[in-house]
Specification:
Layout (H helix, E strand, L loop, with lengths): L2 E5 L3 H12 L3 E5 L8 H7 L4 E3 L2 H7 L2 E4 L18 E4 L5 H4 L3 H4 L5 H8 L4 E4 L23 E6 L2 H14 L2 E4 L22 H9 L8
Parallel strand pairs: 1-2, 1-4, 2-3, 4-5, 5-6, 7-8
Antiparallel strand pairs: 6-7
C-alpha cells in the first residue's frame, strides 16, 4: 500500500484519510496551522497509520498527494516538494469563500488548470471534488460489486490518472476518465453529477450530457 500525503485537514482531507487508512494505506496529513493542531485528528484516525506533519513534509513523504484546501489558498502550496508528484485535486470554486476569479467566471479555465499552472512540474489529476465528504469512507464497495459508485477524474498524464484510478479502487470506487483537465468543468459545482451517487455508466452518461454554464 501507499503513503498518502494529504494537504488540508478539513472535511474532504479528513474523510479521505479515514478511507485510506481503512484500506491499509499510511497517511501523512497537514494543514496551514501546523502539525501540533492535528493531534486530536491523528488520535481519532487511530491505527498508528496517521501522522501529522508540515505541508512541506506531506508533499515530500506522500507517494502521491491529495490537495483539499480552499481554492484561494493554492498559491501558498510549495512547488519544489511536489515536483514530479501526482497531485489529486479536490478543489471547488466558491466565490463567497475564494473571491471572484475572472478566468473561472468566464469559463476560460477550470479549477484544476489553475492548480496545474501553479504546479507546472507536478501531475495534477482532478478527484474527490464531487462526493459529499462524509460519503468517502462509507460508500466504497469491492471491485465488481453491482452498482458500485464511480468518481470522475481528469488529467493530462495517463500514468498519473492510473495512480488515481488505482487509489480510488482501493477505497472502493470505480473511476470515470473525463479526459484532460480542461474537461473537469463537467463535474464542478452545480453540475448534474456533482454530489450524485452514480455508477460508472450513469456517471459517464451524465458527464457527456453536461452543458457548461457561467459561474454565478
Amino acid at each position: 500500500m501507499s503513503t498518502v500525503g494529504i494537504i488540508g485537514a478539513g472535511n474532504i482531507g479528513t474523510n479521505v484519510a479515514k478511507a485510506a487508512i481503512a484500506a491499509g494505506h499510511d497517511v501523512v496529513i497537514a494543514n496551514s496551522r501546523g502539525p501540533e493542531t492535528l493531534s486530536d485528528l491523528v488520535e481519532e484516525l487511530g491505527s498508528g497509520r496517521a501522522k501529522a506533519v508540515t505541508v512541506e513534509d506531506a508533499a515530500r513523504a506522500g507517494d502521491f498527494v491529495v490537495v483539499a484546501i480552499p481554492l484561494k489558498s493554492i498559491e501558498d502550496l510549495p512547488k519544489e516538494p511536489l515536483e514530479d508528484k501526482v497531485v489529486l485535486d479536490a478543489n471547488n470554486y466558491y466565490p463567497q469563500r475564494d473571491g471572484r476569479i475572472a478566468v473561472l467566471d468566464a469559463n476560460l479555465a477550470t479549477t484544476s488548470e489553475l492548480l496545474q499552472k501553479h504546479l507546472p512540474h507536478s501531475h495534477v489529476v482532478k478527484a474527490f471534488n464531487h462526493i459529499n465528504a462524509k460519503d468517502i469512507p462509507r460508500d466504497g464497495q469491492p471491485a465488481g460489486t453491482e452498482d458500485r459508485r464511480a468518481l470522475a477524474i481528469a488529467g493530462a498524464d495517463p500514468g498519473a490518472k492510473a495512480v488515481a484510478t488505482a487509489f480510488l479502487d482501493t477505497l472502493g470506487y470505480d473511476a470515470v476518465d473525463m479526459g484532460d483537465l480542461s474537461e473537469s468543468w463537467r463535474i464542478e459545482r452545480d453540475t448534474p453529477g456533482y454530489g450524485a451517487r452514480l455508477n460508472a455508466d450513469e456517471l459517464s452518461e451524465t458527464l457527456a450530457g453536461t452543458e457548461r454554464v457561467h459561474q454565478v
